[in-house]
Amino acid sequence: MSGQADWPPSAEALLPLLGLSESAEVVADAGAYLRPGRDPDEAGTLVARTAWLVADPERGVVLRSADRVLQVAVAAEGGR
Questions:
Q1: Which of 4, 22, 36, 51 has the maximal Cβ count within 10 Å?
Q2: CA–CA separation, 77 vs 49, rounded Å?
């Protein structure tokens, strides 16, 4: 991928390519997936820099797009 294309691609466009389960969904409130007790300033910055967040509760995976990077994390039980 070159740096010429719009970034990030839409989450909906990527969903079929990610190999996630049928239960994967774009999360409207990225802050809901932050671990409890996170510093409020840090949490606000993370949410502000998040272009989109996809959660797959069936596979326990969360994908986040921010700053030309896709991050993948294993979600703890309870989705955080």
A1: 51
A2: 25
Q: Which two tokens stand for residue 63?
A: 């994908």
**Per-run averaged pLDDT (10 residues), the chain, 80 residues:** 68 84 89 86 92 90 86 72
**Residue 60 has what DSSP assignment?**
T
- Closest by CA to 54, choosing from 28, 19, 80, is 28
Which residue reads 């190999």 in tokens? Answer: 19
The count of other CB atoms within 10 Å of the CB of residue 50 is 19
DSSP annotation of 5: S
Which residue stretches of the chain are H helix? 11-14, 40-49
